[in-house]
UniProtKB/TrEMBL annotation:
Protein name: (S)-3-amino-2-methylpropionate transaminase
Top-rank taxon, per record: Bacteria
The organism of origin for this protein: Clostridium magnum DSM 2767
Catalytic activity field: 4-aminobutanoate + 2-oxoglutarate = succinate semialdehyde + L-glutamate; (S)-3-amino-2-methylpropanoate + 2-oxoglutarate = 2-methyl-3-oxopropanoate + L-glutamate
Molecular function terms, GO-annotated: (S)-3-amino-2-methylpropionate transaminase activity; 4-aminobutyrate:2-oxoglutarate transaminase activity; identical protein binding; pyridoxal phosphate binding
Amino acid sequence: MTELKEIKLITEIPGPKSQELLKTREKNVPSSISGQCPVFIKKGQGSLFEDVDGNVFLDFAGGIGVLNIGYCHPEVVEAVKAQAEKYFHTSINVIQYEQYIKLAEKINNLIPGKFEKKTMFVNSGAEADENAVKIARKYTNRSEIVCFTGAFHGRTLLTMTMTSKVKPYKLGFGPFAPGVHKVPFPYCYRCPHGLERETCNLHCAKQLDAFFLEQVAPEDVAAFIIEPLQGEGGFVLPPDEYIVQLRKLCDKHGILLICDEVQSGFCRTGKMFASSYWEEFGVYADIVTSAKSIAAGLPLSAVTARAEIMNSAQIGGIGGTYSGNPLATTAALKVIEIMERDNFVEKACHIGELTRTRLNEMKEKYELIGDVRGRGAMLALELVKDRTTKEPAKEETNKIVEECFQNGLVTLSCGIRGNVIRFLMPLVTTDEQLLAGLDILERAIAKYN
């Protein structure tokens, strides 16, 4: 296969072959399935992909955070090929296979917390979150779940209920699942209480006591579910002190803490898991969900919990036909081996440092940039029309994303207000590629500043 080295645009975008395929898509695929980039991939390598017309793009979206290890890592490809020659499938519920067991053992050792853990596998982040809630309810014998504004946990009935963004994820799809309550996420740039981080004295954490008085009794709550760094909500990072207080509150009332690491896991934030940052404060989640980059793009997700929590479910109460598929678990074992061997944590820190430095330099030059935030290589820009009023610059955000694409760089927007540009570039991105992509981004921002 010819090596992809750099951005190369040789046709109009989209090119003629992609345009023909778009006609077939329009006729056969629901328009409600979004499709940001109107080009069709032919092959991918590392952080680059070539479309069917021969154009080569740099990908800062990474399959929405799935390609931390990059496109088509040769060792993962070989591992999956070797497994495919043996067998594709046998449900763990019927015939056992080694990959499932080994991967569970590996993830139990990686998830923060020096206590006995057990892991089950399903197929998507939404399934993982759904099972985490189900297990929490079973263990506590309580029904209520508390989640956060700005959250994204999936598109199933339960996870859609826990998701905060109405459009497009919830509009017209109600009624929603019962037993789900929301509290404000500590979004310091847009404090829901109108306070400043330096002087707020963690007012948001203190409000949780009022929530229990006014909304739901703590003895009815099975779990809080929180993203250690909100993904779809705009890459919003809660203060570490807030997490400490949340853990104390959970312990006080016998409530479990579920950490949704679907997007933030597997080295993205500069640690294997974002919740590893909590360890220095002695804070650990009771249940952790992970997915996305776990298997280099094959459908797989995990629910890891304290052993006694996981064991509370009755035999046959959790699992599924395809859960922990042999091809996917084989890929995941190889992904983790490579990430540990080649120090992907350090790669994420390096990419994050270069990117954050450049983004902060842009912020000094362009009034459009209101905030630069994130951890490791999970970074974002929040764009505003005015830095004082913080009016969201949604239209400008969309134009910048499109301008980047037309110049060979794939980026993603996010945030409740649609005014955040997030960066999920593969962690195999070279310095040269990274800087080239940031150059494209800066030119686009300058054009619409």
